[in-house]
Amino acid sequence: MPYLLAACAGRQSALDPQGLQSEQIQQTLFIFLAVAAVVWIAVMIVLALSMLRRKRLADQPLDLHQGFEERTGQIILGLGIVTTVIVLGLSIVSYAGQGTIFAKDEHPLTLKIIGHQWWWEVRYEDDSPHRSFVTANEIRIPTGRPVKVELETADVIHSFWVPSLTGKIDLITGQKNELQFTAKNAGVYRGQCAEFCGLQHAHMAFAVIALPPDEFARWREHENHGASSPTDQLGKQGEALFRARGCALCHNISGTLAGGQLGPDLTHIGNRVTIAAGTLPNRPATLGAWIADSQHIKPGNLMPKMPLQSGELIAIIHYLEQLK
Amino acid sequence: MAAEPRELRDDVLNGLQLSTQLERVWRTPSGFLGALMSVDHKVVGRRYIVTAFVFLLLGGILAILMRIQLAGPEKTFLSADKYNQVFTMHGSTMMFLFAVPVMEAFAVYLVPLMVGTRNIAFPRLNAFSYWMFLFGGCFLWISFALNVGPDVGWFAYVPLSSLQYTPTKRPDVWAQMITFTEVAALAVSVEIVVTVFKQRAPGMTLDRIPLFVWAMLVTSFLVMFAMPSIMVASTSLILDRLVNTRFYDSSSGGHPLLWQHLFWFFGHPEVYIIFIPGTGMVSAILATFARRPVVGYPVVILSLIATGFLSFGLWVHHMFVTGLPQLGAGLFTASSMLIAVPSGLQIFCWLATLWDGRPVYRTPLLFVIGFVVIFVLGGLSGVMVASVPIDTQVHDTYFVVAHFHYVLIGGAVFPLIGAVYYWFPKIAGRMLSERLGRWNFWLAFIGFNVAFFPMHILGLIGMPRRVYTYTADMDWAHLNLLSSGGALIFALSFALLLVNVIYSLRKAELAGDNPWNASTLEWATSSPPPPQNFDRIPVVKHRDPLWADNESLPVVAGLSAERREVLLTSLAEAEPQIREASPEPSIWPLLTAIATTVFFIGSIFTPWAVLWGTPPMAVALIGWFWPTGSKEDEE
Ligand code: HEM
Ligand SMILES: [Cu+2]
């Protein structure tokens, strides 16, 4: 069974564990799977035998014999006890696994994640405010180090789930939940909101990018700096349009005058893999399509249709592309 | 009749006289108006069954729409908005308008016959219950047709279903429909409990009650304890939305998890409200076709009761990923898995029955065997979901969708289809075609597994549920296509059932009283039964009366032959106590249901409906309960 399933493992899969917790869960899962398979097959064998058994010939329906009733009663009682033992054994296995996956480390890297309809806000907080920054829909973490995510929601209930790294936990209105996990290997792991959260629930994905620790440190250092100003004419024009056309009302770009808080932070959008919470790859064409008519791509999302001329659109795309 | 001072009792009439006389007294008045007035449990039960199956058909069509949308990546067959309405309507229809009502409907039809009485307790309440169910269901579906169908899932979690995040009327429609169907379900439960406790045929002691009746008794208690929780929950939701209370609003002291606790305190037993009647059907069918009583009668009953109790202690396993304290969650793992023990015991009893019996493999038994294969698998995946670590991965994924369809369809729908084949001759007087039946079974069995088994794998490889689309690079396309193909085959099997029913209603061979040579009392009368059920109330001396005393079922005498009367018996020993009048047909249950419907629907739009909506209800209820003299007084 594991082999058959492993062949199907995709990029967002509980069967392709890349973290300490997801490995533990997979182990528990396989133990359960093995027991379940044995029990099911056993029951099926008994079922088949009872159907194949050559039956006494008699036609009075009520031809019971006491011996059978008593013997069978004992067997059934015995099987009931066996079932109880199996169930309690599995409970213990489960509880042990639970202990491992919810173990708390003393010095984790702590991030704050806030769910929005239908995207993710990611805050890297630090004691000194100028070393705190915000990003969206993409979570970079170091490998080998425990990461603690503190989860809140800005609106309805969402659920944070990166199956390759660990199981999910809900983001609940008016409550703070947290989850710890450790990525073993570098790589990009897809995550997706798992609790139905309205119209575009299907398009509320994100990426966890696990980097070797030194690379992560470099990235973090870089993120502390705001956006670099555009150097060319078109870029400068794009920056101005970004404010003039109202984008800045909802989006923040650190180091500029754009300070909106409603939509995802765009400070380093040029570095991101996807846009619109995992909906599209981040390329000039898709970016343009999104800005021109995001309602067409992700109907019902909270970004209005922006009335832009095509020249303006090109300038803005060019500007955003440079935000690295 | 004034000439005859003493009332006419059944002991002075001979067989033919008696049955014509009773038929005259008990029959439903003719004509359209008469049909609306009917309080015969068989008439109401038949309507109930047919209506529930219509909702199965509608819910099934929605399922197919979903499976078409998900058959490949990035399909645009349904928009996001439509898909969300469709899965909400599918879940709500299946749970509230099909699965629970259909089980109650079978009970309404069968329980009075199985315990040997003339009508259900509170027949007018029974009629009222059916109308409420019908109106609630129509209301939901008309809303859906008008594009105001609910779209927040059959769990309708707050705050998504709150006014702030869903400002349309859609969640109100959902919440009111819940209230409708819950009123109906509660009414039927009360009727069943009283019928079983007080109207059993003389001599049907507690240890001679048929297993199906036991199952319905336990189910009725589950309904009575679980449904109030969802009524409180949905009423609070309506109040939050309509008059600005803050039960679920965390910014002013409420909490969204309150909804989940209330919902799942109902929602988990709900699964057993559907499954336990299924087990009752399995026991009935198995005994008849294995040609021996079910092994371990007391074990089965104790398992039913234990399952009922345990089902209330498990709701938290639906909330493992909400951040509850870990130790508590661990304990709920153990208690959730423990329910496997009573379920397992029942399975062992059935296997032993098959082992020792001399099974006749007719269609009903095939469906029972399909049930064992599917349900055991669903139970085992349930054990997995009950484990906290595993649940953190599979919760809200297609693994869970696979699991609960294995349990609901394997545990309830397969026995139910078996039950249709089994009791159709009783209800319709004709047999269903056995040849179509076999095709029906194999298409259902294969189609079901092809549709739902791949979903286990889909869930494990990361597909969340309630997504209206997914991209091609997620590697989910092949399994989804397979699953959709299976769903079509499965749907075809239901089409075949429909064909079989329509064809057999007219053309098939007549059934005769007891075509399967079964042992329980419903087969002691003709098929279909006359309005009075039994000409003379039988006396029960054995758990399987028709097997023990096939030729000469003893009867009691002394009931009135000129009024509707039922015999009340004592709770444990079923000793005759008194004769009691059973209500005449009446239009008032229908009028009360209409008034209640106006009240419920009105209160979606304005709280004032509480004021102007009550007088009509009061009038209708007064009409219903207006004291009428007995016939003797008038004459
Ligand atoms: C032709 C047979 C059926 C098919 C193909 C089918 C398929 C589906 C699918 C694709 C979903 C949506 C999963 C998601 O997006 O989360 C679903 C949900 C559901 N189904 Fe079925 N189903 C069938 C029959 C039934 C039956 C007979 C029942 C109950 C007795 C049932 C109860 C439910 C429930 C409660 C949900 C959850 C709805 C929600 O998430 O709000 N289904 N089904
Ligand atoms: Cu979400």
Give a written overview of the molecule.
The complex is a heterodimer of chains A (about 325) and B (about 625). Chain A is built from eight helices and twelve strands. Chain A has helices at about 1-5, 20-50, 65-100, 215-225, 235-245, 285-290, 295, 310-320; strands spanning about 110-115, 120-125, 135, 140, 145-155, 160, 165-170, 175-180, 185-190, 205-210, 275, 280. The longest helix of chain A is centred in the first third of the chain and has 36 residues, at about 65-100. The radius of gyration of chain A is 28 Å and the shape is elongated. Chain B has about 625 residues and is mainly α. Chain B has a two-stranded antiparallel sheet with strand order 1-2. In chain B, a hairpin with a 6-residue loop joins β1 and β2. Chains A and B meet through α2, α3 and β7 of A and α4, α10, α11, α12 and α13 of B. The complex binds protoporphyrin IX containing FE and copper (II) ion. Copper (II) ion binds near residues 115, 158, 201 and 204 of chain A.
Layout of helices and strands:
The complex is a heterodimer of chains A (324) and B (635).
Chain A: H1 2-6, H2 20-52, H3 66-101, E1 109-116, E2 119-124, E3 133-136, E4 138-142, E5 147-153, E6 158-162, E7 166-171, E8 177-181, E9 187-192, E10 205-211, H4 213-223, H5 233-244, E11 274-275, E12 280-281, H6 284-292, H7 294-297, H8 310-322
Parallel strand pairs in A: 1-5, 4-10
Antiparallel strand pairs in A: 1-2, 2-3, 5-8, 6-7, 9-10, 11-12
Helix pairs in contact in A: 2-3, 5-8, 6-8
Chain B: H1 15-26, H2 31-37, H3 41-70, H4 80-115, H5 123-145, H6 170-198, H7 211-243, H8 256-290, H9 297-310, H10 326-338, H11 340-356, H12 363-385, H13 388-394, H14 398-428, H15 434-460, H16 477-507, H17 545-548, E1 565-569, E2 576-581, H18 588-605, H19 609-612, H20 614-625, H21 631-634
Antiparallel strand pairs in B: 1-2
Helix pairs in contact in B: 3-4, 3-5, 3-16, 4-5, 4-6, 4-8, 5-6, 5-18, 6-7, 6-18, 7-8, 7-9, 8-11, 8-12, 8-14, 9-11, 12-14, 12-15, 14-15, 15-16, 18-20
Bound molecules: protoporphyrin IX containing FE and copper (II) ion.
